[in-house]
What does this fold into?
Amino acid sequence: MSQSEIEPRAFLTVHSQFTSIELVQAVVEDLLVQVSMGEECRHWIGLALREAMANAIKHGNGIGDKHVEVEVCCDDEEVVLRIRDQGGGFDPDSVDDPLAPENLLKTCGRGIFYMRRLMDEVDFRFAEGGTEVMLRKRIVPDEGTEEVASSS
It folds into this structure.
């Protein structure tokens, strides 16, 4: 099923505050359990989501009066998360490589690296009034769910 055919399961608009990350992660975690996403995949998606949210708040909006929108779309095959801020955008290709020797001790610059390593697809879209990061991951069911389904 293509990205445009998956119906949204949740849409949240939260304040540009780091405390909003916990709420968004809890909602997404609940949805991933409902579609039988395995525990390990839920963990990695949660980490990528936290990084995307932190980037939207810290680098996109700045903490304050702006908001972050999160859309969660999923079906039996994949989950797609879209995180939109109200920032001015950036060039993802200009972000320093965190594995380069001169960047190993830096305390920032790892969020996009983690997202790209943990998700099957990461895409950035820039428009007037904000930046959107799209995170896509194929569904990997819990092992117990597969056994029950195959024994029926």
